[in-house]
Amino acid sequence: MSGKDVGIRKLMGLHYYVHDLERSRHFYTDRLGFAEIGRSSPALEMSGRQRSLVFQAGEIVIACSTPLAADSRSARYLSRHPDGIGTLAFEVDDIERTFGLLEERGATPIGDILRDKDDAGSVATFSITTPFGDTTFRFIERRGYRGLYPGMQLYDAAHDGSNPIGFSHIDHVTSNFQTMAPALLWLEHVLGLEELWEVEFHTRDVAKYEVRGGSGLRSKVMWDPQSRIKFANNEPYRPAFRNSQINQFVEDHRGDGIQHAALVTPDIVSAVRALRERGVEFMSTPATYYEALPGRLAELGIAKIDEPIETLRELEILVDGHGPGRYLLQIFVKDSAALYKEAPAGPFFFELIQRKGDEGFGAGNFRALFESIERAQGGGA
Questions:
Q1: pLDDT 10s digits, 246-304
Q2: pTM for this one?
Q3: 349-356 and 257-264: which strand pairing?
Q4: Which CATH superfamily is domain 170-376 in?
Q5: What spatial distance separates the first Cα and last Cα of the chain, rounded to whole Å?
Q6: Domain residue spans of the chain
Q7: Helix (H, G, I), strand (E, B) or coil at 308
Q8: Strand, coil or helix: 204
Q9: Cβ of 126: how many Cβ atoms within 10 Å?
Q10: Phi, psi of 209 (to 5 degrees)
Q11: Which class in CATH covers the domain with range 8-159?
């Protein structure tokens, strides 16, 4: 373990604050095939003044909470933002070491380490503030503990959902900022992450954006080599700063925050077919993307992919990579506001990703996603 490493084992999951808990239950169990594995205890609901449900697929754990009173954490978050990610939860090796290192580097703990026991073992946890808007980071050390953390009760048997899509873990989390430098410095000097990848581009070179001047982004990915957790960070790129879909996210979210999380699946073609049958809607990809794909793959040095291009076109799956036998496949679920046709549902969305030897992010796909979101926001034909 290096001196910079704070001992993160994995990104356990997300804590999502929502207006409609039953709608979330329907989405995760009926649409994505997650199992409902637990809920907030009566004691936690009384003290925290919010109600929570917990869903799981593979190693991915998603807790959704809705307010029971105006002074709850979820109510305070939702008074400032639409539905969104309020906490990222990380499992760590040694909670005392993690707490000490983070505090030494200037992190701001929300409180001291909390500890609990159940019949299977112990748990210790603490949270810190972050530069990711109103999103906090929670660190958890579990030693045989059956529950997730104090107050979250697991059912004796999971309800619904058997992970038919085969989700395994969260590949990366992407956040949007009006300026990302403070977050990058914090990720490096406080959390101890390293730079992995970066890109910048602008759509002013595309004819259909000439009238409005186009828009662009800068993106930099930071990662923890030990746990392989990746944080992609975006900011708008001049000119037409305000037209950028990054700035549009910040305005819709009413502040910096987490834009999407990427869920890993071992077979994205089967996953997308199954999810479409279950009623999941995805962002569209223009036909021109697939017309240009053979030439682009040749430029990238990817001589062959396992999936027929016609299948990718049919399902609107993106492909990118960096050399022979190294590529990745991606697709993006519509954001929640578009899925539910109401702004309070928020601009957060999920990505599906299958990595086939490539650990990058695909600059071509990054741009394809950027343009896809701009089309959805009315920015182009």
A1: 899 999 999 999 999 999 999 999 999 999 999 999 998 888 888 888 988 888 889 89
A2: 0.92
A3: parallel
A4: 2,3-Dihydroxybiphenyl 1,2-Dioxygenase, domain 1 (3.10.180.10)
A5: 51
A6: 8-159, 170-376
A7: coil
A8: helix
A9: 23
A10: -100, 0
A11: alpha beta
